[in-house]
Each structure stands twice: as C-alpha cells, then as structure tokens.
Fold:
Amino acid sequence: QTVVTQEPSLTVSPGGTVTLTCASSTGEVTSAYYPNWFQQKPGQAPRSLIYSTNDKHSWTPARFSGSLLGGKAALTLSGVQPEDEAEYYCLLYFSNSAWVFGGGTKLTVL
Amino acid sequence: EEQLVQSGAEVKKPGESLKISCKASGYRFISYWIGWVRQMPGKDLEWMGVIFPGDSDTRYSPSFQGQVIISVDKSISTAYLQWSSLKASDTAMYYCVRLPTLTIPRMDVWGKGTTVTVSS
Structure:
C-alpha cells in the first residue's frame, strides 16, 4: 500500500518562511503525480490551495507556492501570517482509482 | 455561486443502511466530477472515490471498493454516498468535492461535510 509522508508538525514565526514536504513510499515525486495541497482549520472543511505541483486557485494567497524539492512535493509559505496556522495535507495522484493523501502537517505560528 | 450542499448529520446503529447526499448548485452538474473524502475523528483525509454525473463513470479507491456505493441523480444535481450495512468504523466526517477534470486533478469546491456516527 502506497504511503504519503509529511512532517507531523512544524513551527514558524510570524513573517517567517516555512517549507512543508510530501514524500511517496514509491520513490521520487514528480509532476506526474499532480501534487495538490490543502489547508484545513479546526472545525472546517479543507480548502484547496495548490494543484498540479504549483498552480494556484484564484483564492490562493500569493504567499503560498508549490514546487518539487529533493524528490518530494513541497509547499512554501513566505511571510507567514497568524491565520496560516492550520493542518496542511498533500494529495498525490497515482491513478484514476488511487489518490492518496499525506498524513498532514500541523503548522503552528508562534 | 458554485457550491456543494451536504445533508445533515446522521446517527445510526451498526448494521443499518445510510445514504448521504451532496447537492450541487451554481454550475452545470453533469460536466464536473464529484469525489468523496473521509475523515475519521482526529485523523487524516482519505480519498474514497469519484463519479462523473454525465455518464455515471465511477472510480473507487481500492480501500473503499465494495464498502460503499457512489451514485448520482442528474435530475436534481445530487450525488450520493451510501452504505448497506454500517459499522462503527464508518464513524467519520464525509466531504464531497468537485473536480473539473481527472486529467489534471484538482478539487475546487468542497462541501462542508456530513458527520456520520455509528454506535449501538
């Protein structure tokens, strides 16, 4: 069974920069996995931020960016705001029937 | 406004059947895929499956194949997720999501979720 791994937790200071990563047990993550990133705050539905590695939705703040880094998918937040404190999930597309979410990264802004 | 409105919270007993819904509005229902995502209490997101309302083409995650049925009623722009015999382990929040295409997978609209509690 394919496992997608994220950092369990990260802490960043307001105004700082942080990078979250998303690794696959199958090996290198490439653009063919169409990495997606989602933000979820307590008691809310997830919100899509990034799709297809680095494409943003119209509502995605400019401080969020996606990339591939060292064989993983990555989400970078630059100029972190207090409201960015949330759980972040990645999703990798393996086939029409096998999309796998990562375990999530709890981002604390402190 | 494009939105997905999900049915209300459910409390069921093990062995009972259940069908929850996801009603689309503000866009052409038959032109977009609808997917379902499970989130067990305090746990991660899990992809369950997806359906194309235009022709009911349905793809299930291997983990959920045979466990649930995903369907649609085009006449009322509604997608469904159903169980024939619930288990306590089905207790979770269930989200429906919209996907413009599976070619470049992305989810642009999320429902607010339906809480399902299965307890004797």
Observations:
- The longest strand of chain A covers residues 86-95.
- The two ends of chain A are 36 Å apart (CA to CA).
- Chain A touches chain B through 24 residues (CB under 8 Å).
- Chain A has a mean pLDDT of 95.
